[in-house]
């Protein structure tokens, strides 16, 4: 959702993100994700939260994904949506317009032809073009490292409220970097039931399960 490139001088630790390809193994498939740091900055990086969320989905995520309508918010490279589709979910993979063609190429390159019709790439700017999505349209709402810009929180919460029904489950994987990240969790708790279902201490990534009736 939020495209905020780091400065080139941000440090050697970020140099690994500049490599043009990253390879993963999920759902019995080898997935090669194209990255373009110079074009999209942090949106073109597969962060640890995305990989951990994919692992959680692969392990079952507390529900059957086959036939479960899913949407990924702030898709960036599209990895989470790709894995959800490989696991059998009809999935809508979304981000701002500027990122669509970039991650659409990853979707097309990594999904077998018979699965590609189940993966729709679609624009979604939080808090804006919500009319093109039916209220409560999805069973599963996915977001990996989308909680980090305080100015987007109100729009993100509005979007989650629009997409979520009484039956929906939201899975958010994130690293808590700043105090305002906790503020967003507090905002969520005013509207939803929030529970932490996994924490990876090595990567310092949390997965939260969010919904009206957990």
Automatic annotation (TrEMBL):
Assigned keywords, A-Z: Acetylation, Cytoplasm, Methyltransferase, S-adenosyl-L-methionine, Transferase
Pfam family name, one: Methyltransf_16
Protein name: Protein N-lysine methyltransferase METTL21A
Role this protein plays: Protein-lysine methyltransferase that selectively trimethylates residues in heat shock protein 70 (HSP70) family members. Contributes to the in vivo trimethylation of Lys residues in HSPA1 and HSPA8. In vitro methylates 'Lys-561' in HSPA1, 'Lys-564' in HSPA2, 'Lys-585' in HSPA5, 'Lys-563' in HSPA6 and 'Lys-561' in HSPA8.
Localization terms from the record: Cytoplasm
InterPro entries hit by this protein: Methyltransf_16, SAM-dependent_MTases_sf
Any Gene Ontology CC annotation: cytosol
PANTHER family on file: HEPATOCELLULAR CARCINOMA-ASSOCIATED ANTIGEN (PTHR14614), PROTEIN N-LYSINE METHYLTRANSFERASE METTL21A (PTHR14614:SF14)
One Gene Ontology MF term: methyltransferase activity
Family from the record: Belongs to the methyltransferase superfamily. METTL21 family.
Catalyses which reaction(s): L-lysyl-[protein] + 3 S-adenosyl-L-methionine = N(6),N(6),N(6)-trimethyl-L-lysyl-[protein] + 3 S-adenosyl-L-homocysteine + 3 H(+)
Main location: cytoplasm
BP GO annotations: methylation
Superkingdom in the source lineage: Eukaryota
